[in-house]
Amino acid sequence: MNSCALSVIAPAKLNLFLHITGRRDDGYHELETLFTFLDHGDELHFQPRQDSRLELAPMNGVANEDNLIFRAGELLRQAYQQRGLEVCGVNIDIDKRLPMGGGVGGGSSDAATTLLALNSLWGNKLSLDELAELGIQLGADVPVFIGGSSALARGVGEQLQAVDVPQHWYLVVHPQVHISTAAVFGHPDLPRDSAPLPQQWQHAEHRNDCEALVKKLYSEVEKTLQWLLKYAPSRMTGTGACCFAAFDSERAALDVLEKLPTEWQGFVAKSLNQSPAHTALGLN
Ligand SMILES: C[C@](O)(CO)[C@H](O)COP(=O)(O)OP(=O)(O)OC[C@H]1O[C@@H](n2ccc(N)nc2=O)[C@H](O)[C@@H]1O
Ligand SMILES: Nc1ncnc2c1ncn2[C@@H]1O[C@H](COP(=O)(O)OP(=O)(O)OP(=O)(O)O)[C@@H](O)[C@H]1O
Hints:
Layout: E1 6-23, E2 29-48, E3 54-56, H1 68-82, E4 90-95, H2 106-121, H3 128-136, H4 142-147, E5 151-154, E6 159-162, E7 169-174, H5 181-186, H6 211-217, H7 219-229, E8 234-236, E9 243-247, H8 250-257, E10 265-272, H9 276-280
Parallel strand pairs: 3-4
Antiparallel strand pairs: 1-2, 2-4, 2-5, 2-10, 5-6, 7-9, 7-10, 8-9
The chain binds 4-diphosphocytidyl-2-C-methyl-D-erythritol and adenosine-5'-triphosphate (ATP).
């Protein structure tokens, strides 16, 4: 193993609330959403090469050229080249653990971890703000993973205010349906007129404005939430399909996981106010 090799977690995120306050002319939605990270995620391995190639091990379900990991790597390489900086090639491998299209931000987190890790391997020539500017080209959720702190996000998700949120143990359940973010945001019945948060937003009602529509379109999501709500306060994350329930202890969350109907998948994880990717790369 090369001594410069890196293994870095790409953590899941939860949207503790997600309010839609408007729609821009380009179709993107104005959001107010509270992000936190989980100590559970994909694991990416970066191994420098002798040549200048970026090689990504194949991942089930996504062609390599469409993979956000590969696209993030290419984007960063171009940014380095535009500055006249030479970079080494890298082999990238992934242990994919997060459900795809699950609302826990797996693709965005993979992209952000790739930007952070390659930047580190290539000498940290770009600032976190510059990485976030590259990241927003790949997805609205990438900047929060670059910022690395729990945050209240506005705009389409790129205007970030770091905040500490109370930590819990979460049971995250994936009802095994794949939901397209674009289809939910494009649906005519999606409510888009939530009032902006008050100054004291911590005490405002917390809800996910996509939840009612997604429950109507996907009965498995409705069933999942009904089941979780028997045990703890529960909500959907992002545009679904994952739903999460908050517990005060790992034991309490694991007790409910043990009762999970076999047709669904779930995991228990602790929330983190700092991304484990930042901790691994010494960016905190
Ligand atoms: C719903 C959230 O997960 C909340 O964290 C994100 O806002 C979605 O972030 P993401 O998956 O990185 O989204 P992108 O890949 O940028 O966009 C997917 C699609 O969702 C829609 N989209 C996304 C974000 C946003 N603020 N408004 C939108 O309307 C757009 O139609 C876009 O084509
Ligand atoms: N490395 C990757 N991991 C997961 N999905 C990827 C990746 N690269 C590209 N994709 C594509 O992105 C789509 C959305 O994936 P992702 O798992 O990020 O959804 P999500 O958790 O719903 O995201 P969000 O909460 O940000 O909307 C996938 O269906 C897949 O086609």
